[in-house]
Amino acid sequence: AASGEGEPARIAAHETERLAALEHARWMARRSVSGWRYGAARDDRTMLHPDMKPYAELDEDARRKDREQVAVLIQQLARGGERPVRLVRHAFLSANGARQAIDALKRRDGRRGARPLVAVTPETADGIAVAEAALEAGLPVEAIVTRAPEQIHGDAALARRAATVLRQAWCIIAAKGRDPLDLLAGADRVLVDREGNLDTTLLA
User: Of 30, 133, 165, 166, which is most buried by a Cβ count within 10 Å?
Assistant: First the structure.
């Protein structure tokens, strides 16, 4: 969240749906920890609930409740002078021009209610270097990994740097059995491609 003007943020319908699905996942996780599980009819004694299933499988009334919870959360943020911030994933598949691109991202940080998220894989030396530069600039980092650093890097110093990146990352995505660079290619914007070509429109 970022400082706001006290007015509730306007959230697009598709964003509300994504947030409602996350709210439902949070609700399910909290219930599951307490022992609740799916049941065709609600039974508080045996801890069964018909909504203990994925958001996509809920009926419209159950989804409405999750949407209402999202609206309440946004109103509570506004009362506290805060607003939700959209994270825009910017992928770096190479370290070429990374410092220049990160400086440009830093200058644009917070424009139009969005915040850049730097997506990298610390499984490559380039990914580690980009993540370190982003963290130094105060930008959040998304790290995509398939294994622990010590299983990836034969060089102990590189493994330590990768582990430090993971400790400081805003989020970590485990991509077992997949190529992290393929996942990065699906980001909102690829700033540096596999060949090291920089998207210069960012610098305009």
Answer: 165
Cα angle 54-58-59, degrees, rounded to a multiple of 5: 175
Sequence letter at residue 175:
A
What is the value of pTM for the model shown?
Answer: 0.63
User: Of 169, 187, 174, 182, which is closest to residue 130 (Cα–Cα)?
Assistant: 169
CB burial readout 119-150, b (16+ within 10 A) else e? bbbbbbebbbbbbbbbbeeebbbbbbbbeebe
For residue 134, how far is the Cα from the chain centroid? Answer: 15
- The predicted-structure confidence for 122-163, as pLDDT tens digits, reads as follows 988 999 999 999 999 999 999 998 877 678 777 889 889 999
- The greatest distance separating any two alpha carbons of the chain, rounded to the nearest whole angstrom, comes to 62
The DSSP symbol for 198 reads B
For 86, phi and psi rounded to 5 degrees?
Answer: -80, 130
**DSSP assignment letter at 95:** -
Taking alpha carbons only, the member of 32, 24, 31, 15 closest to residue 61 is 24
User: Which residues contact residue 53 at a Cβ distance below 8 angstroms, ignoring those fewer than 6 apart?
Assistant: 38
